[in-house]
Specification:
Layout: E1 4-7, E2 12-15, E3 23-28, H1 39-57, E4 61-66, H2 73-81, H3 86-103, H4 119-131, E5 135-137, E6 143-145, E7 181-186, E8 201-203, H5 205-217, E9 220-227, H6 231-244, E10 249-256, E11 259-261, E12 264-265, H7 276-279, H8 285-292, E13 301-302, H9 305-329, H10 339-346, H11 351-370, H12 374-390, H13 398-427, H14 431-443, E14 447-451, E15 454-458
Parallel strand pairs: 3-4, 3-9, 9-10, 11-13
Antiparallel strand pairs: 1-2, 5-6, 6-7, 7-8, 11-12, 14-15
Helix pairs in contact: 2-3, 4-5, 5-6, 8-9, 9-11, 9-12, 10-11, 11-12, 13-14
Amino acid sequence: MSLNLYNTLTREVSPFTSITPGKVGIYLCGATVQAPPHIGHIRSGINFDILRRWLLSSGYEVTFIRNVTDIDDKILHNAIHEEMPWWALAQKYERVFSAAYAQLNVMPPTYEPRATGHITQMVQLISHLIDRGKAYAVSNGDVYLDVRSLDSYLALSGQKLDDLQSAADGEASVKKNPQDFALWKSAKPGEPSWPTPWGDGRPGWHIECSAMAQAYLGEEFDIHAGGLDLIFPHHENEIAQSNGAGYPFAQRWLHNAWVTTAGEKMSKSLGNTLRIHELLKRVRGIELRWYLGSAHYRSMLEYSPDALDESAVNFRRVESFLKRAASSLGKLPELAIADEFAAAMNDDLAVPAALAVISELVRDGNNASTAKDSATLAIKAAQVRGALSVLGCDPWDSTWINSDAGLDEVISGLVTTLLAEREEARARKAFASADRIRDRITELGLTLEDTPDGPRWSR
C-alpha cells in the first residue's frame, strides 16, 4: 500500500509521490525563539518527526529543514522586558527549544537555518518580485507584495480577498491595497537593521521562510508543514511570494492541529501554557512524547493531567512487555514492521489506528509468552519495537537509555531494598506484609514477576 497524505491545498487525502523518486524534501516552520516552548509548540515537531521516521522506514532519503525565526516583533518586545539584547534573547530561547526537542527524541533537522543568516537570499527574492511587478517599494523604505497582481491568492485558506481586513504590518496609507503585506520593514530607532537597495531595515516574517525554503530545497519541493494557525497569513503569504517570483514552491501542505486546554488553543495570552521542563517533572520524556504523538496529527489534542497520566500508564504496559520479552528471549527484539501497522501509517499517518495495532501485538505476544511460544513472541516483540521506533518511543533508543540511566540506578537500589524486605516477610510467612510490599511496587508503575530464579522487576 502506498502512502496517502492529506493536502491542505486540495482538501483531500491523495497518494504521495515525491518529485524525485526515492527522495523527499520537507520544510517545517520552526520556532520563533521569543520564550520557552510549551507542548503546543513541540507537538508540531513530534508530529512531523513521525512523518520523517515513517518516510525513512519506507526507504526514502529525507532532507528535513526546520528553520529558526530569530528576528521578529515579539523577540524585540520580549528583549526589552528581559533587559537584554534581542540577539541574546533569541539565542537563549533557541537553546531551550533545542533542548526540548532533544529531550523528546525529535531528530535534528538536516539543516536548521536562522533567519538572520539568510538576509542576502531575502533581499534577492524581494528584488526579483519587484522586477516582475509583483512587489513595490514606498518612499519610507518599506516594500510590499501587491496581492492583486497575483493570478491566485488565498487558495490555501479559501478566503476571499475583499473580505480580508487590512494587513497589520505597515501603514495602509502608503499601500496600493490594504491587504498588501510587508516584505521588508524600514528601520526604526533602536531596532536591528540591514542595508538594502530600498534603505536599512529588517525582513517581514513571511519572506524569511520563502527564502530559506528555496535556499535549501530549491524552487519546488515536496512537503511544507506547520501548525494549523500558520495557514493564514503565514503560509498563504509564503505561497504568494514564491509563486509571484515564478517558483512552484511546495507541492503538498500538511498542518497539525493544536493542543487545547478546556477547549481553547494553548497560548501564552490565555495563560494556559504548559512548559516542557515542568511536564518532565511529572512523566518521563518517552511518556510525554508518546502522549503528544498519540492523536492524529490533524485532530485537536485536549490536554489534562489525567489524560497524560493515563497515556503514560498505557505506554508502560507496552514497554514492560518489550522488556519482559527481551528477558525471556535472552536478547533485544529485532526491528520489524507489521503489515497492519504499515497500513495505518500509510493512511495519512493514522497513529490512533497504529496504537490499536500495537495493543493487539502486545496481547498476542503476552499469549505467546504464556504458551512458551518463543518463535511467536520474537515476531510480536520485533513488530512492537519496530512500531515504537517509528513513533520515536523505542525504549532502547540511545536518547531514552541515556536519560533513564541515572534514574534506573536509583530505582534499582530502592526496589532491591523493597524486594529484600518482601523476601524476609515471606520467609517469616508474613504474607500480608509481603503482598503489601508487592502492591506498593506495582503502584509505583513497576512490574514485578516471580520467577524460579527470584523476583524480577521492570519499568
